[in-house]
Amino acid sequence: MRPAARPGVAFVGDAALATDPLFGVGCGWAFQSAEWLVDETRSALLDHGDLDVALERYRRAFRRRLGPHHMQIADYSTGRPMRLNERITFRAAAKDPVVAAAVEEFATRRSTILRLLDPRLLPRVLGSDRLAQSLGWRERRRSRQLLPR
Ligand SMILES: Cc1cc2nc3c(=O)[nH]c(=O)nc-3n(C[C@H](O)[C@H](O)[C@H](O)COP(=O)(O)OP(=O)(O)OC[C@H]3O[C@@H](n4cnc5c(N)ncnc54)[C@H](O)[C@@H]3O)c2cc1C
Q1: Among residues 24, 53, 76, which one ends one of the domains?
Q2: Whose CA is nearest to atom 50 of ligand 1?
Q3: Residue whose CA is closest, atom 6 of ligand 1?
Q4: Domain range holding 33?
Q5: pLDDT tens-digit readout, 69-114
Q6: Are residues 68 and 9 in the same domain?
Q7: CA distances from 52 to 45, 46, 57, 68 (A)
């Protein structure tokens, strides 16, 4: 990932961010980032405004929209085992439609990982896992056995 713009130059698609292709997001991000670049710069180009200010807006929009997704994808791509909070959340999503909708929003990149930090989800996530507290220790031990680093 590099800054999507600097004074006088802009990058879209893989030129700005090449994330792990396993997640199948690069084509969409290429089209979207081209659109964001046009959105942010067309007025400056058509009305002879300050192009570098517009490019800076694009750079920030790109980072705000894709940065959290990229960091999270890169984190999964290390091959690390699932964390306890992820196991509990995904298990809850299999049982609770509200949690499932939040996980779907995040997994399809319609919202960032921050969606799962919504405090209203927490009781539902913990409520659907009666053993959430006592599982903590056993889950960690099991994840080490099943998913070696
Ligand atoms: C194995 C693999 C699987 C993938 N699977 C998926 C998937 O399932 N879903 C998904 O959404 N994304 C997937 N991606 C990612 C996706 O292919 C890229 O994110 C996307 O193609 C980026 O588009 P782009 O236009 O930014 O760059 P590119 O598609 O790389 O296009 C850049 C173009 O510029 C040309 N070029 C380079 N230098 C010059 C030059 N000096 N002059 C003229 N032309 C030049 C290149 O030849 C190329 O045609 C995958 C990637 C890989 C490697």
Answers
A1: 76
A2: 21
A3: 24
A4: 5-76
A5: 999 999 999 999 999 989 999 999 999 999 999 999 988 888 888 8
A6: yes
A7: 10, 14, 9, 24
